[in-house]
Amino acid sequence: MNYLDQALLDRLSAAAKDAPRQRKNHNLHPTDDFCCHRLLNAVEPDTYIRPHRHADPNKDESMVMVRGRMGVVAFDDDGRVQETRIIAAGGETFAVDIPHGRYHTAISLEPGTVFFEAKAGPYRPLTADELAPWAPEEGSPESVEYLARLKALFTP
Question: What is the mean pLDDT of residues 65-84?
Fold first, then answer.
């Protein structure tokens, strides 16, 4: 049995704050080759997750908020925003299920945000055709401005 508690969330969030990418995951699956990936993802407000899609028809992705708030953005193939939603632990909307083939990203809207993620394994890095060609690369100067524009979608 593997019990998940608040102390784990605190450690994971602290590790995300100290990480260069401002995020940290805690895998529950035993190996990257395992058939079902289950993990906690701690994401801080300055992390940039480049919009992407999963081409594999077995790679639908589910995210359930454990703590904090996150904005989810879905795009069309040309990078136009198709829908946005705030998902929040204990909120009206607390989870999202993203079908394969759909460009998407997630934006942390408050410090200490953690979500549970599940999708089919094995782990494979995103391919060039899965990364949104219209979105800046992670770590690029343009990604900071792009993230700010995405965050603005969730501010009144």
Answer: 98
